[in-house]
Amino acid sequence: MVEYSDEEYTIQDFTHLHPLKLVDSNHKDEVICSICEELCSSSSSSTYGCMECKFFLHKSCMKSIPRQLINHHIHPCTLIFITYPYGGDECACCGERIVRRMKFSCGACELDLHVKCAIFPTIDSEDAKEIQHFSHPHTLALVQNDEEYGSEPRCVACAQICLAPAPTFRCSRSCDHFFLHKSCYVKLPYNSVNFKHPFHPKHPLTIKSLPYNDHIRTCDACFRGIDSALLAYSCQKPECKFNLHLDCYNQLSSITFRGHQHLLALLEKTPDVTCHLCGVNYRVAINFQG
């Protein structure tokens, strides 16, 4: 059971509706900071908490939160810090549910962000040694020496081997397979959800690592397999099983052809379509049609 300091030191902070009490240092390993989502014992910073709400914060994390964010790289409108009793909203950055009773929000645009996703350093900070990215649940640390690479580390975005001197970030915990080139990071979008694509107009796509199983996923543009360790675009409806390589996402959706007066649009798996040049029926292929 969490105990508070004998000093009963209590503060009121805008990050929570109730007063926050200083947590006894011997019990910091029992609670998790609601901002950085690390064990409170992972930092030498003091910890404050509200037992009624099971809400705890590092003092250093508490001080890092502004009341509003202006010109944020994810959203141009002003984002306001909000505390509320229940979670359930979806973060526009990582796509996960917000369950920590606080968020940054733009009411006019109905956009919400995890506090962690909103304030954690990004690659835009030149001296950032640790960053948060929607592609991975843990923070990513800048690789400092060759020993950290391990055996043939591959970037989850481009699938190329990560080697010095190219700046590379890796999982700060125990996910030995997760590496991301800094150059690939800056090419990825700032959020992971609600991408529209003409290959699959029915549902939005999200960027994620595909779950590992015995069934090899196939890219619906190039028909090559997709390594489960790599990031890919995937339909948010699991039953669709629609996936695209990151590189295939930007393929042309229409082309000109001298044998037809109209643009040819790329269609997804249209049944009983016959090629007008070779006469072959493409029942399961993506094809161009005028």
Description of the structure:
- This protein has 290 residues and is mainly β.
- Among the domains are: 10-63, no CATH class; 68-118, Wheat Germ Agglutinin (Isolectin 2), domain 1 (2-Layer Sandwich); 205-250; 252-290, no CATH class.
- Helices cover 5% and strands 23% of the residues.
- The protein contains three helices and 20 strands.
- It has helices at 59-63, 115-119, 182-185; strands spanning 10-11, 20-22, 47-50, 55-58, 68-69, 79-83, 102-106, 111-113, 130-131, 140-142, 168-171, 179-181, 205-209, 217-218, 225-226, 231-235, 243-245, 254-255, 264-267, 287-289.
- The protein has a four-stranded antiparallel beta sheet. A four-stranded antiparallel beta sheet has the order 5-6-7-8. Strands 9-10-11-12 form a four-stranded antiparallel beta sheet.
- Strand 1 and strand 2 (20-22) form a beta hairpin.
- The termini are far apart.
- The model has no long low-confidence stretch (mean pLDDT 77).
